[in-house]
Specification:
single chain, alpha+beta, two-stranded antiparallel ribbon, 27% strand
Length: 81
């Protein structure tokens, strides 16, 4: 999910996800490669969008630069009631 937000809102291209595990009881850190799950994330976002629409909210497309400043030049799907 975080990858999707970084790519959509900030225009970053994330090609790899690595979970770093740090704990005082361990001698060193662990790196765990995580799979890219675009299809699953899109399914979750589509399902949530459908729930909001069924609940009386309506989707609007907003220019991200109007909402968040000059972070990106794309657009973002917003939900309005």
């Amino acid at each position: 999910m975080y990858r999707s937000i970084l790519q959509r809102c900030y225009g970053l291209n994330i090609t790899q996800i690595i979970l770093i595990v740090c704990h005082p009881n361990q001698d060193s850190f662990q790196q765990i490669a995580c799979p890219i799950m675009d299809a699953e994330i899109n399914t979750l976002l589509d399902y949530r969008k459908l729930q909001l629409i069924k609940g009386g909210h309506r989707p609007i497309t907003a220019d991200v630069t109007e909402v968040m400043g000059d972070l990106t030049n794309g657009s973002w799907m917003c939900i309005e009631k």
